[in-house]
Amino acid sequence: MAQILKPELREAIIQSARNEFYIHGFEKASMRNIAKSAHMTVGNLYRYFKDKEDLADALLASTIDKLDKIITGEISHIPTDVQLAHGRTAEFDARIRRLSMGFAHVFETERKEFMTLIRHPRMADQVVSSIKKIMVQMVERWFSQVDLFDRRIDMITSMLASAVFNGLVRLFEESLDSPQEEIEWMISTYLNLFTLMISAGDLHYEKK
What we know:
This protein is mainly alpha-helical. The chain has two domains: about 45 residues, Arc Repressor Mutant, subunit A (Orthogonal Bundle); about 150 residues, Tetracycline Repressor, domain 2, CATH 1.10.357.
């Protein structure tokens, strides 16, 4: 008869992984160390999680969901009828405030999970993809002359999304002991630089 998996042991594994991933990073994290910290054998650990990726998914599911709601929420907030430059600016500012507060809150409340997530290659790519969606939506709805199927536009939005993410990673890595208010200000200032670049491209977009 198969042994019944115990919820408390599964949670013990997740908590052990939380510290192991945070300290050593996903690639260097040891399943043996996680099992030892959870007071079980490695074989027993694999009864709960098939591999390290499976364990990371369980650990980070809630954090990923929160970040996804923050990012996708901004996509749904983009209006279709804002055409004037001052209207775009107001929307940029509002969106940046929401993103900054959301990111800073998740970082503050789930710091180990947040840092593990942005250091994990596969999950980091998911965040970059979501950031790109915001940029594509902004360009599509505000600059009607832009051909989003143009390879150059696709490349530029990909480059910008990667640059935004990489800058945020450095910001968070160097702000582990900073208060939430300071982090919000830094995120807001950083993102403003990118939205200014997008809005400053108005004449260039219209010429296309």
